[in-house]
Every structure is written in C-alpha cells, then in structure tokens.
Specification:
The chain is an alpha+beta fold. It is built from 3 helices and 7 strands; from the N terminus they run H-E-E-E-E-E-E-E-H-H. It is globular, with a radius of gyration of 16 Å. The structure holds zinc ion.
Amino acid sequence: MEVPEIKIYPDPVLREVAEEVKEIMDEEIQEIIDQMFLAMYKTPNGIGLAANQIGVKKRIVVFDFKREKDRKGDPFVIINPEIVWTDGKIIHEEACLSIPGFSAKVTRKKRVGIRGYDRNGKLIEREGDDIEAICFQHEVDHLNGILFIDHVSGLKKAIFKRKMRKLMREARRKAHA
Ligand SMILES: [Zn+2]
C-alpha cells in the first residue's frame, strides 16, 4: 500500500470541514484508516493524524500516544469523533505535521472525554489528560478546518505569517530554479 503524503499548509483541504462517515465497514473507509496509520508512522514523532491531513474529507482521526520511533505502541482510530466533556485549562507548546517548522503556545482544555466509533463500528469513549487531551482537541479541530495557529494570539500569528510567506517564496524560487 502506498503511503500518502501529508498535506502541508496552506493546502486548502486543511481548511475544509470533513464529512461524517456513514458506512464504517466500507472497504474504502477501512483502507483510509490503514493509510492514515502508515502516514502517521512515517513521521518521526506524530502521535495523532486527521483524515484531512492526507487529503481525505472524512471524520476520521488516528492516534498512538505510546509510539516509539520505529515501533507501534497503542494505535487506535476514532470515527466521527466528538468531544463530549472538558475540564480545566492547560497551556502547551503545540506543533502540527501539516505546519512543519513552527510551534506556539496554545491554551486548551486539560482533560476531555471523546466519543466516536472504532473501525468495527463499535461506540467507544476515551478520556485524555494533558498531552492526550491536547491531541484529541487538535485532531478534532482539523476535521473542522481549524489549525492550531487559529488559537494563537496576534503577535505570534504575525510571526507565523511572515515565516510562511518566506517559505513560500523560497519554494517558488526552487520550483523555478
Ligand atoms: Zn495538526
């Protein structure tokens, strides 16, 4: 199976709202899940990935909070995920596989409950603290076309935009070289 490329900002698919999955047992959906795991494990340290990040507008997120560099830890998928409760507040330096080379402090809920379906169509609910809670919120945001930079305040966002313009100029130069 081919490993899909991770879409990089400002790819417009990252701004689209993903659609609810109707038939979880569908062969195509099962294949998307496999491809998402492949794409996540290809990165050196990704612990979560949303379907939009491989260009698929479906409400699917995959995680592995226990992954090590070349080894699977505890992979799981949540289909049609919903954050059902939240508690507390945490500020953490966030990054994103789709926005390489940039990180910033984001305020999130410290604990969340997330509900959705596993790949067999069974209803599941999980709780996450700290980094796990942040990751749940970050990936569900992706399904709604929201990126962590949207939670970043004025000055830091201006720095981000400047950096992105520079990167795009360089990419264009390289493309013409
Ligand atoms: Zn991300």
